[in-house]
Write a structure and sequence with these properties.
The protein has about 190 residues and is α+β, with helices and mostly antiparallel strands. A hairpin with a 2-residue loop joins strand 2 and strand 3. About 5% of the residues have low confidence.
Length: about 190
């Protein structure tokens, strides 16, 4: 960051920063720096000696929204981030696709009011507890389908398998089992569907 003067406003905070970004078309090189703040995308154009040549500000409130999603897109099989503003489009090239996708995700979160931002340092992302709990529920459901034991040690019942009881049509004894299955009466050995 060095001596760069971003002229951040008092109510402006940096959300993420990436170095080695390219901007400016086909002949551009991966030498620029890009910052996302709560108010702007800030592009710091760097020279060959890493000196600051220019600083450009792109207000995030000028990014288009469509169907409740920010128009910050990473096209397939590119490392580019395309940002569609009310008055035009800017394309930023990143060193890898993962970084470009983090930018798209964070811009979307910023503009749609989400509070969690993708962490740049591969640490746990806020909100992962909710995802983990959802996955745990899904795994428990699969265990239930295949008759595995739950965390409480009881065997879970597969989905759609309802226990039922009725009287044997032959001898009148009580029989029970899974609804729809054929069971054998333990008293008279007759078979019938529950």
């Amino acid at each position: 960051m060095g001596n760069d003067k971003y002229n951040l406003q008092q109510n402006e905070s940096v959300i993420m920063k990436t170095e080695g970004v390219k901007h400016g078309g086909f002949m551009a090189v991966y030498s620029d720096e890009l910052l996302l703040t709560n108010l702007n995308i800030i592009l710091v154009k760097k020279g060959l000696l890493r000196n600051t040549k220019d600083i450009q500000y792109f207000p995030v409130n000028q990014i288009k929204l469509f169907n409740g999603k920010a128009q910050a897109i990473v096209p397939k099989q590119t490392y580019d981030l395309e940002v569609y503003f009310l008055n035009g489009q800017e394309t930023f090239g990143f060193p890898n696709r993962k970084e470009a996708e983090k930018w798209a995700d964070n811009i979307n979160r910023l503009l749609t009011g989400a509070v969690d931002f993708v962490d740049n340092d591969n640490k746990a992302i806020p909100g992962t507890e909710l995802i983990a709990e959802t996955l745990k529920g899904t795994i428990d459901t699969f265990k239930g389908v295949f008759g595995k034991k739950n965390n409480d040690g009881n065997e879970s019942k597969p989905l759609g398998e309802e226990q039922t009881a009725k009287y044997c049509a032959s001898c009148g004894a009580s029989i029970k089992g899974i609804k729809g299955r054929i069971v054998r009466c333990q008293y008279c050995d007759s078979e019938q569907q529950l």
